[in-house]
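Ticket #370: bound-state structure for magnesium ion.
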Amino acid sequence: MNEKDQKYYKPDWQPENAGEEFAIKVVKGKSKSDYEPQKFKSIEPSVEDLVEGVLKNNRTKLAKTITLIESNSEKHHQKANEILKRLLDYGGKSIRVGITGVPGAGKSTLIEALGIYLIQQGHKVAVLAVDPSSTLTRGSILGDKTRMEKLSKEENAFIRPSPSGGTLGGVTRKTRETITACEAAGYDIIIIETVGVGQSEVTVRSMVDFFMLIKIAGAGDELQGIKKGIIELADSLVINKADGDNEIRANIAKSEFSNALHYLKPATKGWQTKAVSCSAITGKGIPELWKVILKFIEITKTNGVFEKRRKDQLINWAFSMIEDELKERFYHHKLIKEKIILVKDEILSGNKLPTQAVEELLNIYFKQSI
Ligand SMILES: Nc1nc2c(ncn2[C@@H]2O[C@H](COP(=O)(O)OP(=O)(O)O)[C@@H](O)[C@H]2O)c(=O)[nH]1
Ligand SMILES: [Mg+2]
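RESOLUTION: The complex was predicted; output attached.
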């Protein structure tokens, strides 16, 4: 028997010289030993391997690097820092776009439409998307289609979902590092999606060049949970779902917003926040939206605002890293961990004021760590 015959054989009721009309084959059963668990030794890729992989835009290596970046383990943390140090020189050369809006506004659909359009224009697009299946937004409501199926099939796209739960609405403490890794892998457009939870819009604003707010025509701002403060963070208000019966309404809303925007403080010096309308489903208005972004980049690069914002963001990043690092070290310090349990009880029983407790803990920490 040759190898092929060993896998399949004809059922015994099939005539000996039967032709192709008998399309049935029986698959040979497997013996128990075939199912013995095999021992795989997981080989962790080295720093070298990951850096090389990212620079060659190996998407699996990029994803692994991001997992290391996001990991809370000290070992991973060090490795991620090593990698980032080496990638930093290759970062920075992209247009970073932030997108916010309430769940159901069409952010993911819009990112997919814009992403595909940009890839057709020869760009490479990385998307840091909100994963709707996690807590807050729940996958099924409003027919969320965040998987971005069409875009994820594109060779020049990289999609990284982050959980939307918690207070960060899809942004993680490590989103900045992730942006750097994607840029080093050659993505020249980075799109970051966030749902308006807590500080997430402000955080994303502090990471991107261009920030847009997606709205739906007709639904009042109360319904969309949009505060004036958020509008003042945006470089563009995008009225989505301008299709079918909604198209006229969307265009009226666009004009109304255009007028209202003149009375608000623009988010970026030298740029008048612009209202646009589009349909993420039909694609109408998507090229125009991109033109607005390009115009913005051109203007801000000419007047120096782009460069200044990037520099400010870098400083901001550095200091937020210090804060993170201090917090992390403090709460993981052995003595502090022990003391915190006692201190909590003392505060609750009224034996110690919170201010006293704080002073005590900080004293312990700083004396120990000097
Ligand atoms: N008619 C219409 N529906 C849209 C448009 N964009 C998104 N949708 C639909 O709105 C729902 C929510 O879209 P999704 O992209 O998941 O919203 P997200 O929560 O903001 O990311 C889905 O059912 C989409 O198909 C659009 O431009 N026109
Ligand atoms: Mg979404």
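RESOLUTION NOTES: Residues 101, 103-109, 142-146, 240-241, 243, 279-281 surround guanosine-5'-diphosphate (ligand 1) (CB under 6 Å).
TICKET STATUS: resolved
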